[in-house]
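Re: pyridoxal-5'-phosphate structure - here you go.
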Amino acid sequence: MAYNDLRMDNQWLPFTPNRSFQKDPRVFVAADGMHFTTHDGRQVIDGISSLWCVGAGHNRKPINEAIKKQLDTLDYSTAFSVSNDKAFRAAEMIAAMAPGDLNKVLFCNSGSEAADTALKVALAHHRARGEGHRNVFIGRERGYHGVGFGGMSVGGIPANRKVYGAALLPRVDHLRFIHDPVKHAYVHNVEPAWDEDPLLELENRILPLHDPSNVAAVIVEPVAGSAGWYVPPQGYLKRLREICDKHGILLIFDEVITGFGRLGKAFASDYYGVQPDMLTFAKAVTNGVFPLGGVVCSDRIYNAMMGAHGSAPEHAIEFFHGYTYSGHPVACAAAIATLDLFREEKLFERAGEMGPVLGDAMHSALKGLPNVIGIRSLGLAAAVELAPLPGLPGKRAFDVFMDCYHRGVLVRNAGDNLVFAPPYIVERAQIETMVGTLADAIKRV
Ligand SMILES: Cc1ncc(COP(=O)(O)O)c(C=O)c1O
């Protein structure tokens, strides 16, 4: 279909300024490797792995072939009370990669569904153990766990919550945000060491307020991704684990962004050496080519849920939750091929190697430019933070995003941050082009 034949007035774009888009549409018609082709025939570098998804790069034949083959073999089967071979195989591979006893995979279709699923497992698990009063959730300011009501409630991005006030879950509290803009504005592949313990407020204020015995779970992104790649203070996740253990609280890591290689390891849990009770995943698990998400739960959680039903008749369902497309065979075939490709091409290791290259380039090219107030890099992702325009938060970064797009680089604007998280196959020269284009745009804007 020719671009000029496209009607642009029926699709309402998600998380997009629609009125501005209509005036200057950005439409991709093809992708290969590191690049998109636009409707007007230009090449644009995918500097963000299409929102943290496309770790192996675009148009990977082994994944495409696996999907085509699956469509010709078993296109779809219901997920309730029957299943399919690819779902079991994908679950086995994901469980083998997940840390420790995280071995039970509940599939869904997105990161938002994964967050809500994990929250529901937490409540159901506590109730099964006779602790149904544990129904308080603790998230973190500026955390992002998708757009379902559960994920929005534990999430802490003000704009995402503002309109939905009374409809958010009632018994939710939030940890303070993990950024010190004065002492740790510039973070390069290290965990910043804070003078004070940012988790003291959890122990001294939040838990006493709700009483720890009422708290079901704490959910955090190991690295705050959507907010703009904010790195946790040194020892933060370990201490969070200890506090949760002390009080019988479940710890959930939202690894939708950090899962499957972004930090050079399978999961951020491996990178930080901290095992949660559940981790959520989506995005890179299928290289983004087919929707798939999930929650990996510990054996302990699963066994408690099954054990609690020990005296119930065997036809009784133990967990009333699931999606029509849970474990979709085509999605799972895509996941199997993606995880094979990650292993065969050692792509997590490559992400680990290219991370410092990206970080070095960002810090050396952008520090000191007009309006730059911070740069943070860890793994194969890095963000530069700009001073907001007075009264127009986000405008400066949006203008930089547009400038980069028109010069052939897709960067992500998040608030007044600009974030790069390229596919793991990125080359040094492409990093130089991306960062150089961003630097020029920052100077121009
Ligand atoms: C940490 C995190 N959790 C959950 C989600 C929501 O995922 P989805 O958009 O697939 O629902 C995202 C999306 O960016 C995310 O970054």
